[in-house]
Design brief:
Shape: globular
Bound molecules: pyridoxal-5'-phosphate
Structural class: alpha/beta
Number of helices: 10
Strand order of the largest sheet: 2-8-7-6-5-3-4
Distance between the termini: 46 Å
Length: 354
Amino acid sequence: MSRFISDKFKDLTPYVPGEQPKDLLYIKLNTNESPFPPSPYTLRLMRQAAGNLSLYPDPEYTSLTFVAAEKFGIDEDEILFTNGSDEALNFAFAAFCDQNTPAIFPDITYGFYEVFAKINRVPYEVIPLKADFSIDINDYINRKGTVFIANPNAPTGIYLSLDKIEKLVAANAKNIVVIDEAYIDFGGESAVSLIKKYDNLLITQTFSKSRSLAGARLGMVIGSAELIKDLKLIKYSTNPYNVSMTTASAGVGALLDTEYFEKNCEEIIATRENLKEQLKTLGFDFTDSKANFLFAKSSAFGGEELYLKLKEKGVLVRYFGKERIKDYVRITVGSKEETAALVAAISEIMGEKK
Ligand SMILES: *Cc1c(COP(=O)(O)O)cnc(C)c1O
């Protein structure tokens, strides 16, 4: 840190992304990316868009907005596209939290929430998950602040049913509730259907996980026209062209190629359930994940030990090192082949320990 950095950032600890090793030798099961490439149709639209890169993009992303509004059954003024859903979440912390309106989120959840609270200099309240890592929505009722819930939660993968989400939103009429649906396509039911009924609900989704576009950086936030207008105030005050032209076109492709998307999600879900069975046989304990990852604990190894031993074998998983979850690793559900390699590596490691 230089001696010139502003005092306001002196205590800031940034979010630590999962490793992205450059040697490409690893089986990467540490950042919840899709094992499938973008669809051929998506790539074609992207290439076409590249011819216009000398121009600024349409800051309203009209085509993408039109396609998404159709897809999600909402109006065009009820959605905003962002540079990854991280940007949407940051906008929400900026727009809807302040000294009198703290951010409220669980102790074990997406690590970025705490960082967003800090960079926006807003207070936050952390509410512990239950002993089994579940969220009790009653813990989020009768508080004053903006509630952030990832559903399914990360890194636990535990999913709250739509009726619980509705209860939470209905009981928080004076607060905004932000539901981060980064993993909703892997077996959950989205709360988008509730936005016409509740003007205090915001939903973020990403193209990074289920839609194979982590590298393109595309996210979206859905809510009442009033809330979206507030978020646009932040967007137009920071970066009007927050999504590149090629990424916006990729988004159109990813939304229209329904068949490709559904097939990939189904395969991930099947692979996930199969991996649960195999890990059970190997003496693992895990939460009932409805995401594209498992949050698992071995009876033979601590979390860090397992992470390091798997890395030696060329398999990257995510270890968080936070006290409450130090026995766990988060394992992305990759392709069938990657998953088989993971299981083989775990079996080897167990053999070596004996
Ligand atoms: C991956 C992830 C995001 C955001 O991802 P982007 O790539 O920025 O869209 C948001 N929330 C959770 C819980 C995530 O895991």
